[in-house]
Amino acid sequence: MGSLFRSEEMCLAQLFLQSGSAYDCISELGELGLVEFRDLNPSVNAFQRKFVNEIKRCEDMERILGYLLREIKKADIALPEGEVNPVAPLPKHVMDIMEQLQRLELELSEVTRNKEKLQKNLLELTEYTHMLRITRNFVHRNAEQRESVRPQYEEFPFLEKDVVMDYSSMQRLGAKLGFISGLIQRAKIEAFERMLWRVCKGYTILSYAEIDECLQDPYTGESTRSVVFLISYWGDQIGQKVKKICDCYHCHLYPYPNSNEERADVVDGLRTRIQDLHTVLHRTEDYLKQVLNKASESVYTWGIQVKKMKAIYHILNLCSFDVTNKCLIAEVWCPVNDLPALRRALEEGSRKSGATVPSFVNRIPSNDTPPTLIRTNKFTSGFQNIVDAYGVGSYREVNPAPYTIITFPFLFAVMFGDLGHGVIMAVFALWMVLYENDRKLKKTRNEIWNTFFEGRYIILMMGIFSVYTGFIYNDCFSKSLNLFGSGWNVKAMFDHGPWKMDTLQSNSFLTLDPNVTGVFTGPYPLGIDPIWNLASNRLSFLNSYKMKMSVILGIIHMSFGVILGVFNHLHFRRKYSLYLVFLPELLFLLCLFGYLVFMIVYKWLAFTARESEKAPSILIQFINMFIMQEGSGEPLYPGQAGLQVFLVLIAVLSVPVLLLGKPLYLYWLHKGRNNMGMYRGYERVRRSSEEEISLMRAHDLEEGNSLDSHSSSSDGQSEELDFADVFLHQSIHTIEYCLGCISNTASYLRLWALSLAHAQLSEVLWAMVMRVGLRVDTRVGVLFLVPVFGLFAVLTVSILLVMEGLSAFLHALRLHWVEFQNKFYSGAGTKFSPFAFSLLHASFESHGLL
């Protein structure tokens, strides 16, 4: 947990891997997740690297695994449950896995192809059966018309009456009658009919009827409605046109029997073939399911192995070979504390491969800025993500996350303080914490739920702190709780105060006056007295209370951020920043806004309720402090004017020190070092390790300082100082800090505003919803209260918990990012991304493997 306060100390190391054991060593490092590899071949194309063929083989296996997985999901076969973490396969076993995958792919593709052919044949036979059945109905419909035509036309039973009458004239012209039957999709029948009429000029007759059941396409799996049609036409030319039109509309054409006997034979043959196809198709599906069940037993394991193998070859492509091509050289960033584990991993990899020459690690100096590693657990990871969303911390600078664990939920609760809402939020978060290992809760596709679940500990802390502030505000669903008895004596209000019994009966809200003697018996033990919930001046009292509380909390929070900067100055050995940066910043903040907090607390302690009417206004006193006027009223305390002038002078004088102190000191230090060459402090630091010097140099550059007073050059030559650049950065910092102290203090008033808004919205919701149900005091009112309470619960969760909670969360986020972290936190680092197989599991689904 030490790295939670400051990032882990990192070092750059070289790995010397023997060619025969490199694969096993990288596999061991991937299982442990200790190091981040650097690319030693940045100028080499990805297709020209050493292990590109191995990566292509892995991609082929991934393609096969994706195909198997899609077929398994299509067959609705469950993958084996449980956490499986097989090791990366050895290179000599890769060909066995490849052969098994290819054999499964070939077998599965053949069975699937045969199944599709059988389904297509079954569909055609089914369509043919429907066509024969429906066209037979056409025959029965036209049977009544046969008696009205001449006997020589009885061999054409499917003609309409007028068509048969016209056939005599067509026969004299030598025309030949033909039939085309088939199926077409229902959505195309109208356009098909219009096209036949326009192209064939009425020399065709179209009869059609819709099929009762839906037919499924074997290729797409979609169910469609089809229509059986029968077209009678005259002449071969018309018949050719009809066939082309049918082809354009993708009609399924089937031969039409010329007689009833032929029709019956065809129907019997179709029935037998359909039964045989059902039997064969059922056996094919059983065999296909057996193949998929066999594949499902190993597809998850193979997927992990292939992913690991591909990652290993990708890392090997980042390495470079020595001159003998027998040793691979890799450069890695590694935490200093993990160096022993790194050596053991290399020894284990060499032992597994049976290498005679072991692989080893060598720590090397570097001027590059290392990545930032902060170790977290399931509780601290959520708060660390909040900080990292602003920016990953620079190497070895103070980490705000451990302080955010307390301040973030507390500032949220100040804006959200409600006992009832806090309990609901805490119970919901506690349920997620207790069932955090449930696979159904962890593996969902709902991004909103995943966001809530990942921040379950943050929500739990926010709920607990909201319960605390709810007790302080004495607010529970907009109602106060009288737990300890009020500090106001109601009887004394009528004995000593101006109120009478008729006044109490005619007014639902009364103004509380603390100046009446004997009315106020003592303070409420915890939080705000519940009697304020009945007073008409309740909002005025809470306005004053919460506004001053917001200012006090804001000044304390910002001062704490300035103090945390001390640890950065001390760690990076910039002691001059304590006197030239930290001290002026703290004096400027405390002399002006710290004095404002002093006046608020002093007025609370020095003036009683009776004297409060004559007490001077803090706001007026604070304004007079800047214009250096005593004002017309009485001072807040003796000697106030002189102290205020002194504090303003200290604050004003701290600005030029903050603006010019650091640039002038660095310029003097640089000039003196060039003239004498024997600055003791410089010599002491130069003798320290090159790694510490490079870290200080990197941090100075991040702070905007172009001068590194502790040069890391091996030849000891001093670097040139760009004074204009240093002065420009310090000027920006000074202006930003001085103006920020004013704007940031005003920004903390959002604590007051959102707290009042939440309380008022809760009170409005109670008055408009819940009070309506409570007014009905009959037996029917009990039944009426059930839906009213349901509506109240829904609105409470959706508006007060979700919407108001999200609003308070975002404002607390802004207070930490802008008002707190900018006092000491730069957030200009890069996150440590170790080579770890555990990070590959999250990418399975996105790559189509799971």
C-alpha termini separation:
34 Å
SS-derived structural category: alpha+beta
How many helices? 25
Give the total of domains: 4
What's the total count of β strands?
11
Low-pLDDT ranges: 143-174, 677-718, 842-850
Please state the average pLDDT score.
82
Helix content: 55-70%
Label the overall shape. flat
Radius of gyration (CA) equals 42 Å
Q: Describe it for me?
A:
The structure is a single chain. The two termini are 34 Å apart. The protein is flat and about 125 Å long. It is built from 25 helices and eleven strands. Strands 1, 2, 9, 10 and 11 form a five-stranded antiparallel β-sheet that branches. It has a four-stranded antiparallel β-sheet with strand order 4-7-3-8, sandwiched between helices. It has four domains: 2-106 and 286-364, no CATH class; 113-279, no CATH class; 380-487 and 522-541 and 749-823, no CATH class; 572-593 and 636-747, no CATH class. By secondary structure, it is of the alpha+beta class.
Defining key terms:
single chain, about 850 residues, alpha+beta, 4 domains, five-stranded antiparallel sheet, four-stranded antiparallel sheet, 11 strands, about 60% helix, about 5% strand, flat, disordered C terminus
Short note summarizing the structure:
The chain has helices at residues 22-32, 52-74, 91-142, 161-172, 189-200, 236-248, 260-318, 339-353, 380-390, 401-416, 419-434, 439-442, 447-454, 456-473, 490-496, 501-506, 538-571, 576-606, 618-627, 640-676, 680-686, 690-702, 723-747, 750-775, 779-820; strands at residues 10-18, 36-38, 177-185, 204-210, 215-216, 223-224, 226-234, 252-254, 320-321, 327-335, 360-364.
